[in-house]
Amino acid sequence: MTAGITFAIIGVAALIILVVMGVHIGVALGAVGFFGLAACLGPRQAIAMVGLVGYNNIATFDYAVIPLFIMMGMLATAVGISTQSYDCLAKWLGKVPGGLGVATTLGCAAFGTMNGSPLVTASVFGKIAGPEMTKYGYDKYLTYGMISASGNIGQLIPPSILIVIYGALSGDSIGRLLMAGISPGIALTIGFSAFTVITAIVRPHLFPKVTAKYSMREKVRSLKDLIPIVVVAIIIIGGIFTGVFSSAEAGAIGCLVFFVYGFLVRVPLEKLKTAVIDTVENAAMLFLILACSSMFAKFMTVSGLAEAVTTLVTTSNLSSVLFLFGTVVVLFILGCFMDAYSSIALTIPIFYPAAVALGIDPIHFDIVAIIALHMGGLTPPVGLCVYSAKSVAPDDVDVMGIFKGAFPYLIVMIIIEIIYIFVPSLSLAIPNAMFN
């Protein structure tokens, strides 16, 4: 084992310890990257390199999509789209077995698509849908477990901040990745909804039928509440598909739609101002992560660890399926202790080159990894989505109960992940059709 690889292993261990201790992932990545480069190359070269690497990694127009997608989500929250979309879906699906649960899953998918944050989605729908579902006799733990799980869907369907960040770190086409995320997003929506309906049929005491009745007139009138989400979805997916504009331009137009909608429905200017401020804060945090992760990635390359892992994988006759399963297990375990951004920043410099060397399609690998990243949001001890739902749940709903309620939906995610590992075309069909 060379000195560089020894430094890299120490650096990875130090990074994990720092993140678990609560140090911001950007600071932890930057510190480990800098001191690792200093150990491998010397302090002077490290100082010269970190500034150049950090700047080059974020000084690109492609990353303009990040603040625009964040602003879109903040504006969607400010103008109240979450409440409107859920009310509409609940009116149409209330009579279906487990209908309120299906409405909640669809509402989380729609709102999460605009918002881009599973934590915000879980907390918002924990406030909106949680009390409504439990009022009709839905099992309280399954209710909040479902909300925790459904909050993840929006990070797959474009616009998705996580996918943009992942593409930025891996170097893959952000447009192709965004389109590839549509398929697993729909698969998770169908899987969660199907489980809820089947459970309501087999064990109706867990998800009893809703007695409230709505006229067809009320249902039809409620469809207008879905118009903003549908318009933005058509703009983003349709625009990228037809090549009319780029991902960044799609984000700008989406922001404009929500701004105009906010003025039309007379949303207080203070809410719109808060949305802009929150956008700046979140964008600054993500750009810090991008810049510092590039330093860490450079350290992994200079140390030789990334090359060593690639060589080990390619010379061990490991099949692509086994490698993908191993990657999923590692990401799942990391997700139990870290947020998604920390996990991808830590693992991409090590696993991505090995996946490419094995001949795995980069987009397929990315989608499998992104699905795996979402599982950690439902598992203790971190389980950020669960804690987010718990933060707005009644006092009699304890956090371990929510973890148990989320477990069946985690099983659904694992099943879908296995399917995507064995069937790469599910990840590649949409981006190949759109970009070829």
UniProtKB/TrEMBL annotation:
A GO term, aspect molecular function: transmembrane transporter activity
NCBIfam families the UniProt entry points to: dctM (TIGR00786)
Pfam families reported for this sequence: DctM
Keywords: Cell inner membrane, Cell membrane, Membrane, Transmembrane, Transmembrane helix
Coiled coil: none
Protein name: TRAP C4-dicarboxylate transport system permease DctM subunit domain-containing protein
Chief subcellular location: membrane
Ranges for domain TRAP C4-dicarboxylate transport system permease DctM subunit: 13-425
